[in-house]
């Protein structure tokens, strides 16, 4: 059997990405408050490992999706700003709400939560995708909004 060599790419490579709303997809839901963000990301609350999610928003603060950027361990998750903003860039999001669960049920933000949030707010500023809040999910119905608590300075909605 002869070895076939693949042709070398000599010119620019064109890639086309398309976002398609599938038939039957729910209409975007307006997310304006930390309570609404908590409800929208409720599926993360039941995970047994820490999951870091990004609620993607259109220009009218309607949620166009929830992207799980990372899945960690029972008490930590490594957050890469590229993974957080990749979906926002692809979805042409006008803003994002950050959210993650604490499997322990204690919604109190850690020092690391505050550090990474400040880093992501700055990354969003550079990318022109404002970070509007970071909602930490605890036990059923429990959450902390870092914006409401004044723990981090976020973009003006």
What does it look like?
This protein is α+β, with helices and mostly antiparallel strands. The protein has a single domain, classed as Cytidine Deaminase, domain 2 (3-Layer(aba) Sandwich), CATH 3.40.140.10. It is 27% helix and 23% strand. It has five helices and six strands; from the N terminus they run βααββαβαββα. It has a six-stranded mixed β-sheet with strand order 1-3-2-4-5-6, with helices on both faces. Strand 2 (51-57) and strand 3 form a beta hairpin. The longest helix is centred in the C-terminal third of the chain and has 17 residues, at 111-127. The chain is globular.
Assign the CATH topology. Cytidine Deaminase, domain 2
CATH-derived architecture: 3-Layer(aba) Sandwich
Which strand order spans the largest sheet, edge to edge or round the barrel? 1-3-2-4-5-6
Oligomer: single chain
The number of helical runs is: 5
**N-to-C order of helices and strands:** EHHEEHEHEEH
Q: CA-to-CA gap between the ends?
A: 63 Å
Which strand-content bin applies to the residues? 15-25%
The SS-based structural class is alpha+beta
Shape type: globular
- Mean pLDDT equals 87
Number of strands: 6
Specify the helix fraction band.
25-40%
- Low-pLDDT sequence parts: none
Number of domains: 1
Q: Mind telling me the CATH superfamily name? A: Cytidine Deaminase, domain 2
* Biggest β-sheet strands, sense, barrel: 6 strands, mixed
